[in-house]
Amino acid sequence: MPRTKMINPTVQPILMQKKPEWFNVRRRHGANYRELKGIMRDHALHTVCEEARCPNIYECWEQRTATFMILGDRCTRACRFCNVAWGRPTHVDLDEPRRVADAVERMGLKFAVVTSVNRDDLDDGGASVFAATIREIRRRMPDCGIEVLIPDFEGNWDALRLVVDARPDIISHNLETVPRLFRRIQPWDNYEVSLELFTKVKEFDPLMITKSGVMVGLGETREELLQVMQDLRARDVDVLTIGQYLPPSQRHYPLQRYYTPEEFAELRDAGYDAGFGHVESGPLVRSSYHAGDQMEALRRRRIDQARSA
């Protein structure tokens, strides 16, 4: 008798549930999308847009924005929410910073986002490659804004300083969820280490813009989300993103519920009440979604606050 595949009963009802209407995404394979896809393949580069199956890839690539993923496509951590492949990493490609800068130049970007897999196999967690990528983009495109979405480097603050000293415009690190659920979805991460990262960034450069993101729909409560906001503001984090968790497959952490647009608006207001300079909150919001616009919105808000003071 053939064996039948068992389906996790906790996951099945949610995954098979029809997505709410506000998740309808138009798939536009336009000229810009095709060109950017070609540029990424020509330069043998990875993007988190593709690896994480981001629903915004069609919109972002049509607007000629993309998030580069450096240090390979194999992650040393197997977080339960993430679709990036887990496994033994490949060698460190020291030519990758040049190729990323080449792609940024060919795309004519005004703002570039660079992230990576976790590379716990490296002494500095890949921080030196982040720094080299920032410097190479600066050399080619001095007016291009740069955001780096970094791992925790396992609390190696000397490694973190390499990134800070390279002077990106924004340093981002996502908490992803509330403390109660943190180790369930990120078994190898540590909530307190992630918070300390923001403290260290501000110690190294008090003017550096810092940013974090959380997902909702994993079973957290509103009170827990508000506490995360307070924890981040206690570390002087400037920008917060809030988006809906969507499990990439049945083997990933189960989705508990969808948030409504009204709930996202309430969380955005709560973020501003907590003191963030800018809050991006919505069903399809991801950390790097409209990243350049987020930085400009933060700057405008700071100018307005200074004028009204």
Largest sheet: 8 strands, mixed
**Helix fraction?**
40-55%
Which CATH top level class fits? Alpha Beta
| Range of strand content | 5-15%
Q: Helix count, per DSSP?
A: 12
The third-level CATH topology is TIM Barrel
- Indicate the mean pLDDT: 84
Number of strands: 8
Radius of gyration (CA) equals: 19 Å
What does this protein look like?
- There is one protein chain.
- By secondary structure, the chain is α/β, with parallel strands linked by helices.
- The protein has one domain (27-308): Aldolase class I (TIM Barrel, Alpha-Beta Barrel).
- It has twelve helices and eight strands.
- It has helices at 12-16, 31-42, 48-51, 57-62, 96-107, 127-140, 157-165, 179-185, 191-204, 222-234, 261-274, 291-308; strands at residues 46-47, 67-70, 111-116, 145-149, 170-172, 209-216, 239-244, 278-281.
- Strands 1-2-3-4-5-6-7-8 form an eight-stranded mixed β-sheet, sandwiched between helices.
- Helix 5 runs parallel beside helix 6 (127-140).
Short description:
By secondary structure, this protein is of the alpha/beta class.
